[in-house]
Amino acid sequence: MLKEVIATRYITPLREGGSLPGLIEADDLGTYVLKFTGAGQGRKTLVAEVVCGELARRLGLRVPELVTVDLDAVLGLGEPDEQVQELLRSSGGTNLGMDFLSGALGFDPLAFPVDAQEAGRIVWFDALVNNVDRSWRNPNLLRWRGELWLVDHGATMIWHHNWPAAEASAQRPYDASDHALASFGPDVTAAAERLAPLVTEDLLTEVTAEIPDVWLAGEPGFDTPDDLRRAYARPLLARSAVIHERIHGIEEAK
């Protein structure tokens, strides 16, 4: 299971993106980017962060450590911004934290070349989870200690917003023409040969087990959190075997 920490100090809001994450300090003395259950996108965004982040990690991609953060809603009452105060008040309990990579730089494709193999692995992974938020306008990639790190996977697995149509939605191809790494000749064929065999039922069971029950409870059409966990795993398992053939908009390295 994800490590559990307790928020001890709210430092500042991070005014990037629509969810208004915050920077906090926790009882393990770590500093984390906090994503709130009370944000407009709701708990499904946090579920997507966990599934995709932990799957990426197990496939050998670099993702900051994810933790669950117990937040006392009164922690940020000194924050002068009313929007932030409301977000804190509505997010008491279990939230998601991402290790803060101090000194990391936003990815710039003109400044940071990426080889075709690494680009291929990232594009293949984004196609697997249908990540629509890794464009050149908003790469959600960080350069830290000379390496690429993947962040922000809330806009993935769009099928979990409409479970009755999830199977059909998960069969759709992936348009990578706008992908932040499309210009690097991503070798998705090699990536599929390497990564697809790793995406097994056992691996996905391990990944989905990381999702806190509280974020899964009460989903219409599912009796238990484990039923919903299996629903998350099924499209990914089916998609992993064929998605490399359905990636459009890039020219692979030869």
UniProtKB/TrEMBL annotation:
Molecular-function annotations in GO: kinase activity
Name this protein carries in UniProt: HipA family kinase
Keywords linked to the UniProt accession: Kinase, Transferase
Domain of life: Bacteria
InterPro entries reported in the protein's UniProt record: HipA_2, Kinase-like_dom_sf
Pfam families listed in its UniProt record: HipA_2
Coiled coil, from the record: none
Domain HipA-like kinase: 12-239
Lineage summary: Bacteria, Bacillati, Actinomycetota, Actinomycetes, Kitasatosporales
